[in-house]
Amino acid sequence: MKGYKKVIGYFIKYFVLFLTSIFVLFPFLWTLITSLKPEVQIFAIPPIWLPDPVSFKNYIDAFSSGDFVQRFGNSVIIALGSTLLSMLIGIPASYGFARYPYKGSKTVFLLITAVRMLPVVVLGIPMYLMMRNLGLLDTKLALIIIYIPLQLTLNIWMMYGNFKKVPGELIQASYIDGLGPLSTLVRIVVPITVPMIAVATVFSFLASWNEFFFAMLTTSSARSMTLPVYIAGNITSQRIFWGRMTAMGIAFAIPAILFTLIAQKGLVRGLTAGAVKG
Amino acid sequence: MLSKTATKLGSREKRSGILMTLPAILVMIATVLYPIGWSLLLSFSDSASVFSGKFDFIGFDNYIKAIQSSDFQNALVNTLKFVACTIVLEIIVGFIVSLTLNSQPPGHKVFKLLYTLPLMIAPLVSGLQWRWMLTDQYGVVNNILSIFGVKGPTWFANPTSAFAAIILANVWLAVPFCILVLVSALLSLPETLYEAGRLDGANLIQEFWYITLPQLKYTILTILVIRLADAFRVFDIVYVLTSGGPGNSTEVASTYIYTTSFTRLHFGVGAAASFMSLIIVGIACFTLFKLMGDSEEDVM
Amino acid sequence: MKKMLATILALAMAISVTACASGGGSSSASQQSGNSDKPYEGTKIVYAGESGSAFGEFYKSVTPEFTEETGINVEFFEVAHANTHDRFLTEALAGTGSIDVYQLDQPWIPEFASMGYLEEVTDEIKTQIDIDDFSESGLSTMSYNGTLYGIPFQYHTPVIFYRTDLFEAAGLDSPPETWDEYREYAKILTDEEKGIYGTCLEAAAVLEPVTHFLDKILQAGGNYWNAETGEVTFDSPEVKNALQWMYDLQHVDKSSPEGALGYENGDVYNLFLEGQVAMVSEWPYFYAGAQDPEQSNVVGKVGIAAPPKGTDATSALWAFGYGVSSASKNKDAAWMYCVWATSKDVLTRFSIDQATPNPRASAMAAIQDSSEVGDDIKNVLGVIDESCLRAQNVTNTPYFPAVQERLSLTLSNVMSGITGIDEEVAATAKDLKGILSGS
């Protein structure tokens, strides 16, 4: 009887998991398949399931000029730079707001969170004017500066709940051991909240890696242009270059996947550490 | 508990709080105060100020214009519909999947990894991808449906299916976020709670309702606030998938603000509309805090 | 005095450039060296245009010749088509001066001109390019209030492309000439079982389909406004006829796929090249694509004809051109580029390469005379060029981007049946009055 129930349970579980993973995975897979098709097969009606023959022409087209690689490099520098800085600033800030409230801190916290609720379009022109005044138009630094506040509003809020849940006894104990608030954060709190920090890092990275609007507005050459803007260039007034665009889309997703995998490793390790302590 | 520790350490704690949050506050002031202040001024100025560089104040005219415009009203209604649909779906699917994963069936790690994939896709690329799959004639989705004998809708030809298309694309993009956050929160729940529940004879639904859900209050709040703000600002997906069509049936606040500003060059009205939608999201989030049954003290 | 000297120098320079460019046709002819011939040697100018466009790619590939002749370096500043207007506008209102040459897209020329973001084409430049060599309709696309702000390098209007094989199979021996014939043929050619549609309209709620909508309005004898009096003429039987004709084609005859309600030109292009559509009223660039075996299933099966006439034999004229930003710090060098890029030699090569006409009569004549150009290309260019001469400029208002946006809503609302024709036309007319009066 119990075994029977277990089988049904597994059946339902895997049904849910398979169905949802098809939903999640298929668009990605279809993009990959499209990118490997020769042009004539891309628009076949009804669609051709597997490319025959497999063609790497779209990838060759995408990478041959060297433009892609250059923009790829820009994206990496900007995303890593802004993520690193925003996490360095965001972790103590989030912890400070959560554990050491002072007069007005609540309001400041809410204001920072509220920035996230403003439609970005409205910030386009003033951001542009600001970067012009600083002489930073068409530089990587401009995008790093723009992305840090966007990431901060996300990661401060994301980590806040977890910092809040850290047992007060643990912190008290570390005070007794002679640690100050900052070293308590670094040595005691961060290690047990690694899962959430990892998640916040991933989301900060992705927010920067995938950002389009500000990148479109402030970059104009190979010096600073990021991949989303470059990929959008495949949409022309005459046609959409689906083949080349899907190839670029796949190449664009790979670093994000790697980054998430690495962060996930940290996440799992952090989780086990947390389980032992909790 | 918090107040106890606060009184014990007193001013040292306060100083630590200020020191720890100061860098972030300074960075925010240096980077976004000017753009936001500029836009706020603009929302009370004639749109021509953008070109002349001098603010020409006209009071609340832009706000009144936006409120009275049937386009903005339509965009707001659509946005609210969109936000409600997408968030409900995201949370439901998110819970179903994360609870299933949490029971740790063999291979759950692989599945978890799969679910993170859409996170890494830029909204712009995702929008294009769905347009590519849903398009008439050579779109693959209707082709798959026809294998099962279902005639798929001509997605972008009528308001209902076009709306469904943007919801579909958005849920695809956002569900992994919910799954990931929920899974890590579920993992951190102490097993002892459930043991106690089982001793009391709670079934799975009761367990979820009385044990899991209350424990995940912060997590759900975090998800809701982040997703609410994001869903309210949705732009890329709508822009790429439907451009607000057919007619203006899928026009949302952000696309309205965009065309009002950059196509009609009514930058002042666009700014006013932006701040009004900020207020709406703010109110929605505040209501959420209250609805979650917490006193503000507790949440903060 | 100094200025005059500089102008004369620039003039002499530019004439020598055009002379040698139109003379030999090969850039190696320019062997002159020495600084007096290259007063702007080492100057850098920034060319801002649409990324990935075939026209832009052509210019990117030939621009090294300009650099070799003049010593002026050209840097390309490319923006995706959907964002060019917004991006250039931001750049212009911030007055950064980081753009010298604009690749002008017609819809926003009057807007930029009225705000003072574009330099006028002066009489000296007009002499240098031999302005009389350009067709009047072509120049009108680059003008606002009687002043010329750019030099067109390309112009086009949608024409009929049809499948000769399908026409033959259906017993039709010539392409349609009138609206009635177009509808009738489209119905005959539609074969739902084979998945072949007689034609394919565009009605997505985006800007592109509006260009075809305007064709239909003009062919019905209407217009959205009277450019001379400023009066809005949208609420008229002509406009309603145009909408009715498209609606019937789509919903009564069902000669256009249902998905057309969400299509723009790129989608129609794919369907036509795939072989699913028997005829389309579309842009000239379709031809080059249809003849490319790498992307097309219909190579050698495509005929071309003038746009179908309603009460009027006309259509809307669209052009790309080159103009100089008012904020440019290298205006003389920038104009040299514009002059070079629209010279007879460059335009001749451009039109052959892109199978698209340009408004310079001597360049078009050179193509018809050339023995190296195939008869099919000559025919295609001839048909499009003739259609362009009959076509009209519809963008002569600084508010055109807003007009176009409103019309995209009109078309989408009517075609997807959200609102009835009479109701929508009245509502549009009311909105257009507001838009065109600048409020």
Strand and helix map with partners:
The complex is a heterotrimer of chains A (278), B (300) and C (439).
Chain A: H1 2-35, H2 39-42, H3 57-64, H4 67-99, H5 105-115, H6 124-133, H7 140-165, H8 168-176, H9 181-192, H10 194-209, H11 213-218, H12 227-232, H13 242-277
Chain B: H1 2-9, H2 11-43, H3 49-52, H4 61-68, H5 70-102, H6 108-115, H7 123-134, H8 140-147, H9 159-187, H10 191-199, H11 204-215, H12 217-232, H13 236-241, H14 253-263, H15 267-291, H16 296-299
Helix pairs in contact in B: 2-15, 4-15, 5-9, 5-12, 5-14, 7-9, 9-12, 12-15, 14-15
Chain C: H1 2-23, E1 44-50, H2 54-70, E2 73-79, H3 81-94, E3 101-105, H4 109-114, H5 123-129, H6 136-140, E4 143-144, E5 147-148, E6 151-156, E7 159-163, H7 164-169, H8 179-189, H9 208-219, H10 237-252, H11 265-274, E8 279-282, H12 285-290, E9 302-305, E10 318-324, H13 331-341, H14 344-354, H15 361-369, H16 375-390, H17 400-415, H18 421-436
Parallel strand pairs in C: 1-2, 1-3
Antiparallel strand pairs in C: 3-10, 4-5, 6-10, 7-8, 7-9
Quick structural gist:
The complex is a heterotrimer of chains A (278), B (300) and C (439). With 278 residues, chain A is an all-alpha fold.
Largest sheet of chain B, if any?
none
Low-pLDDT residue intervals, each spanning 5 or more residues of chain A: 273-278
CATH topology of chain A: MetI-like fold
Q: Mind telling me the C-alpha Rg of chain B?
A: 23 Å
Helix percent of chain A reads over 70%
CATH class of chain A: Mainly Alpha
What is the name of the CATH topology of chain B?
A: MetI-like fold
- Tally the helices of chain A: 13
H/E element string of chain A? HHHHHHHHHHHHH
Q: How many DSSP E strands of chain A?
A: 0
Strand content of chain A: under 5%
* Apparent shape of chain B: globular
Largest β-sheet summary of chain A: none
